[in-house]
Amino acid sequence: MMKKKIRAWFEKRFDLKAIEQPLDYQLRKPLPKHISWFHTLGSMSLFLFLSQILTGILLLIYYRPTAEEAFESIKFIMTKPYMGWLYRQIHAWGANLMILVVFLHMLRTFVTGSFKKPRELTWVIGVTLFILTLIFGFTGYLLPWNQLSYWATTVGTEIAGAIPFIGEPMKVFMRGGAAVGGETLSRFFVIHVIILPWVVFFLVAIHLFLVRFQGMSTMDPVDKEKEIKKGEGIPFFPDHMVKEGIVWFVLLGILITLSILLPFELGEKANPLKTPEGIKPEWYFMSMYQVLKYFPKLIGIFVVGLAPLLLFLWPFLDRSPNRIPFKRPISMAVGVLTILSLLVFGILGTLSETKQTFFGKTYEFNIYGVPHVINTRGNSVNHNNDKQHK
Amino acid sequence: MRIFILLLTVILGFGPLVLAQNTPKNYCISCHQDTWQDLKNSIHGKQGITCEKCHGGDPTQPDKALAKAPSTGYIGVPDRMQIVQICGNCHANVEAMNFYGIRTDQLAKYKTSMHGKRLFENKDTRVPVCDDCHGYHDIVDIKDPNSPVYPLNIPKTCNRCHGNKALMKPYGIQTDMFQLYKNSVHGKALFEKKDMGVATCVSCHGSHGALPPGVRQVADACGKCHMNEKDNFLKSVHANLVDQGKFPQCIACHSNHGIQPVSVHLYDQACVKCHQPQSHAYQEGQKLKQLLSSAQQGLQQTQALVQKASIDGIFVEDETALLEETKTKVFQMEPLQHTLSYGKVAELSLQVNSQIKDIQNSIHQKRQSLQMRKIALWPLWIFIFIMVTVLWIRYKQLESSRKDKH
Which A residues 222-261 touch B at CB under 8 Å? Predict the structure, then answer.
């Protein structure tokens, strides 16, 4: 009764059918039959983005973006407000998971060739969203104003400063001065909570519109895609939505479990006069950071800068009409090599400048990630000298 | 301009010559070269105070006989009584010392000291005079670490005489003070930690006015640093015995030169010197000991608890702040015990115990809360499992209905 009354009220004012019909069409529009669980990665990214918005708003209630108060305000959030610790941990874990899930979503798109004509623009927006997610992570990492975040940001902005011509002014602009300080915090805060959320929101809206408007990609070759007739594919609603509901629940469980069992520690307050040992960026920048060590500054930045450029241009470089992975060997080889190099350099970066014990032997990894056996006294064992003596 | 240049040339050219002519030549140096080496680097030498100020004579005379002529007031090597007077000529002169900001009561104090009295009243020249402690030709500022009266050197300087058995025998003074002091809490702080704020010989006995503190002055001597202990002691039942000369204040329990770090076990060792173990006084002491032990142990345990919680990633700022407050109260108990008032110490002990309990409860609650979070994962995953199962069944239903349609 009430529902009818509300509907009648709206019908008198708006042409509801004109709105409902395209909405209903989009909702019932069938998806290709090959749609798998991997196709829920996009909605998982959306779920995490929404979770970040919600927990971010809660954090904003108590967070103070000044060098004097930032650390204390986070400590306050973690100890005083009801469930403050939980939404802070969900926000921190959500940021990490979001980068991982967005990357996996992009990887799925790459493997299934969904980025190809006519969906190049959706891919370009997707790559932009991935880069913006990384910037989200970079700017958000500084906000707790602890030692790790402070020095990781110092290293990060220093790398950006090495870019020819624009690097130095860009570094000063980002930092708001010569060194990372209160001005940097203010800038990163504004970027993190005002600029990025809105830019990402609009890009996600365009991305989703394009996905719905152009439809999900089939595995048919480019220009030979057949329209999926009603009753042939899988209806988006309720079939696919139910599937997404399942992953959303599981993701929520994972997020809360990680927040409780592996909480992010706040550490020590940022101290510009005390540099901690072996300072490293977050895991998602680790491979890039490691690659930079092997090249002279400018060449390193060029090599690292090539990766996002290739990602943007990939739909225009890979001109083969095939979408099936087995029919795109070069493309797949490039993809596999990229994943492997990310893993290898990421591991080398993590191990570099650390001591690790494997099978009873202690190894010291230098900045390039090369291991050296060290004896019990903590001295590096030089094998070449040993051989010469023998 | 030319006149100006001419004047400048005259001043720069002949100035040093004029100044050199104004400083009379010291002919003492020609024979006493080694003494001059010591004197010129001393605090006096640097101020232009030379031979004739102490020895008399006329250093400007190149002829030895004229330089040491009786009319010049030449005294040669001053005797011990003369030394005190010669030093006092300047150091007791307010006008002369005002420029250097040095006090001028040393001579007056020395005359009141045991050393001074023996010298002036008994004509005993074995007692130390100024140069025995400060040196003479090579005398340096007392703030100079090379000075024999620099705080780190004082015990050794005093021990030069007070450790000399032959010298001390006629006075009947013990000679093991330095050894006792070296192994005492004060001596270890001075020699091992180089803590120059710690008590040395002069802190208790005075320097120029050196006297052994009498029975009634012990608390005053110790109280210079241990003010709260002294104030509380004066409120105790023992303070009444001091007037009767029956209780030598602080040293009765703590001893003097060989004083050791104190602990609650002193109640077992010191009280029995005067009280029977069955006596009421001794039992009162044991009750105080119990209060202090329990507060100190409680504090130690709570410190460890807070530290462990901090290592485990629990925020303990509030507990740490409260712990500092508790620590202060435990420290306050230490001087307060000198009142020997069970009531006063027990009142503080109650506050300490209450705060320790608050801290322990707070840490316990935080640990419980962390545990509860982990327990809460079970209902969460049960809920998720139910929801996922329901959705999965629905998904399978939709899938089979789609297949049926085909």
Answer: 231, 234, 238-239, 242-243, 245-246, 249-250, 252-253, 256-257, 260-261
A105: domain CATH number is 1.20.810.10
Pairwise CB contact (< 8 Å): A243 & B387: no
| Complex-level ipTM | 0.87
Helix (H, G, I), strand (E, B) or coil at A380: strand
> Residue A80's closest chain B neighbor by CA?
B315
The answer to whether residue A26 sits within a structural domain is no
Residues A330 and A363 in one domain: no
A372 in the same domain as A260 = no
Quote the tokens at residue A199: 């830019």
Q: Do A250 and B376 touch (CB under 8 A)?
A: no
Number of domains observed in the structure of chain A: 2
**What is the spatial distance between Cα B99 and Cα B316, in angstroms, rounded to a whole number?**
56
The answer to the question of residue A13 being in a domain is: no
Using an 8 Å Cβ cutoff, are B302 and B326 in contact? yes
CA distance B10 to B2: 12
Residue A313 shares a structural domain with residue A226: yes
> Is B377 within 8 Å of A231 when comparing Cβ atoms?
no
pLDDT values of chain B reduced to their tens digit, one per residue, 406 residues:
455 454 444 444 444 444 444 556 888 888 888 898 889 889 999 888 889 889 999 999 888 888 998 888 898 899 999 999 999 999 999 998 998 888 999 999 999 999 999 999 999 999 999 999 999 999 999 999 999 999 999 999 999 999 999 999 999 999 999 999 999 999 999 999 999 999 999 998 889 988 877 656 788 889 889 999 999 998 998 888 887 878 888 888 898 899 998 889 999 988 988 899 999 999 999 999 999 999 999 999 999 999 999 988 889 999 999 999 999 999 999 999 999 999 999 999 999 999 999 999 999 999 999 999 999 999 999 999 999 999 999 999 998 988 877 6
Q: Are residues A200 and A275 in the same domain?
A: yes
Residue A3 lies in a domain: no
Considering the domain architecture, whether residues A245 and A310 belong to the same structural domain is answered as yes
Chosen for mutation from A43, A246, A252, A256 (greatest number of chain B CBs closer than 10 Å) is A246
- Residues A243 and A384 grouped into a single domain: no
Number of H helices, E strands in chain A: 15, 5
| Domain membership flag for residue A157 | yes
Residue B135 falls in which region: left (phi positive, over 0), alpha (psi -120 to 50) or beta: left
Whether residues A48 and A114 fall in one domain: yes
Angle B27-B31-B32 from CA coordinates, rounded to 5°: 95
Q: How many of the other CB atoms lie within 10 Å of CB of B338?
A: 23
Cα angle A90, A255, A354; round to 5 = 80
**Closest approach of chain A CAs to the CA of B194, in angstroms?**
29
Expressed as residue numbers, the domain containing A330 is 32-352
Instruction: Specify whether A237 is located in the same domain as A373.
Output: no
